[in-house]
Amino acid sequence: MTTRETLERLWEIVEPLAADQGLEVVDIELRHEGRAGRVLRVYLDRVEKQDESEAPGLDELSRVSRELSDLLDVYDVVEGAYTLEMSSPGVNRPLRKPEHFARFVGQRVRVQTEEMIGGRRKFSGPLHGAAGDGVVVLQDGHEVFIPFGLIVKANVEYEWASP
Asked: At the top level of CATH, which class does the domain 98-156 belong to?
């Protein structure tokens, strides 16, 4: 199974498990990290939040981790040894799905594309829209349309308040 297929299968397993706990899957990473070997990292967030600082608690993450570990042992999705880590996404939350982008319209984002758009592959600015088949980012005073299919990496850029 390729890494892409493994990640797709992991999403299929983790999403219902997280949803049962009132959480959503923000991202899943499977990578080799030096001496630590392979690491399977699952980022979870609350579906319903009063504000963006209300991250999942350690008890919730631990509960999902135990249940996921059991399921992964049964389905043997990840070949070989790995370390399972659960985390909340943090303030610079990754954006993976169209609904993730739609939730953060109006906020500052950073987007990296697979191919050049207007002579560049990296964009940073306010997210002006997210609908249909892509997003619109305000870059250097111009709106740039970025198709979802070209997005390699994207995240919210938390703006810290000035003192």
From this structure: mainly beta
